[in-house]
Design brief:
single chain, alpha+beta, Phosphorylase Kinase, domain 1, Aminoglycoside 3'-phosphotransferase, Chain: A, domain 2, 2 domains, five-stranded antiparallel sheet, three-stranded antiparallel sheet, 11 helices, 10 strands, EC 2.7.1.82, ethanolamine kinase activity
């Protein structure tokens, strides 16, 4: 792939078109479970070296990602100071400016100082205006995933056997009940990142600057969903959901999100409302990624146990279901009695 990647960079990066291919170097930055990220560097012959990031989309990712939506949002997010600058796109990827920062770890995210910065930056992210429909996409996306996930066939007999144990009627009923209940919360609709795991957060320690990256799942959605989805990622790559933040840690995050300048002055009722909202949408996050994993189990060539990940997320949904739904129902009942 090297000559092709160098050719793309020569075409899309200003000042690189005339450089000899021998002046380029390519290294892998990271590989998630949907994309491959490369750092491409070039030396101009005068001792000056500059770098860009090339992101190659994984095969079949258009089954779960709306690239048109992503490319529409990036210039507006970039103008607001989020992520890397988009330098150009090609058939199965994009070239962006290189961010000089380290990727956070799951344990970094719960450190109070960093958690406060993420909350403040997330509020700013949620205030970005992206042209087009402002209708929340969460439930549309979940129902689309459900439709695709329910008609799969696996060549591997063992996988097929495990797949056939899934009741899609049950999942559909769960989704409808959760949607009906969460709609009653009237959660604010904002442009959401929707994938704020540690790998999409970068920190330049020297400048104390935090970066959000990778907006491919971005869409208008519910404020509480984006926060809950982030909290679910405290579990890390080992998916240890006992690491989900406790109430005090959540309130620390909420204070900095709701009033970045005066977190100590946030009203108790605002904290309580966001707590209910977030922990109801916590369930939606598990269902979203569970169904996403089923589709990936069929179409992705990446060596990852997607089918196992479906059961892990759906089991966690079932484990948290009663407490989260009760919290929402109690809160709604209390509001009726006011």
């Amino acid at each position: 792939m090297t000559p092709r990647i160098i050719g793309i960079c020569k075409e899309l990066v200003r000042g690189w078109s005339s450089l000899d291919s021998s002046r380029f170097s390519i290294e892998r930055v990271s590989g998630g479970i949907t994309n491959l990220l490369l750092k491409v560097s070039a030396e101009d012959g005068k001792g000056n070296k500059s770098s860009v990031t090339v992101r190659l989309y994984g095969p079949n990712t258009d089954m779960v990602i709306d690239r048109k939506r992503e490319l529409q949002a990036i210039p507006h997010l970039s103008a607001a100071g989020f992520g890397a600058q988009l330098l150009g796109t090609f058939e199965n990827g994009m070239v962006q400016s290189f961010i000089y920062a380290r990727t956070l770890t799951p344990s970094d995210m719960k450190e109070p100082r960093i958690a406060a910065e993420i909350a403040k930056e997330l509020r700013r992210f949620h205030q970005v205006h992206i042209p087009g429909s402002k209708e929340p996409q969460l439930w549309d996306d979940i129902f689309k995933f459900l439709k695709k996930a329910s008609v799969l066939e696996f060549e591997d007999k063992e996988k097929q056997k495990r797949y056939e144990t899934i009741s899609f009627r049950e999942i559909q009923d769960e989704v409808k009940e959760l949607k009906d209940l969460s709609d009653l919360l009237h959660a604010p609709v904002v442009f959401s990142h929707n994938d704020l795991l540690s790998g999409n957060l970068m920190l330049n320690d020297l400048e104390e600057k935090l970066y959000f990256i990778d907006f491919e799942y971005g869409s208008y959605s519910y404020r509480g969903y984006d926060i809950a989805n982030h909290f679910n990622e405290y579990a890390g790559y080992d998916c240890d959901y006992s690491l989900y933040p406790d109430k005090d840690s959540q309130y620390h995050f909420f204070r900095n999100y709701l009033q970045p300048d005066r977190p100590s002055e946030v009203q108790a009722q605002d904290l309580d409302a966001l707590y209910v909202e977030t922990n109801t949408y916590r369930l939606a996050s598990h269902i979203y990624w569970a169904l996403w994993a089923l589709i990936q189990a069929k179409v992705s060539p990446i060596d990852f146990e997607y089918l196992g990940y479906f059961f892990l997320r759906y089991d966690e949904y079932k484990k948290q279901r009663e407490s989260c739904l009760s919290l929402a129902e109690s809160s709604l009942a209390a509001l009726k009695n006011v």
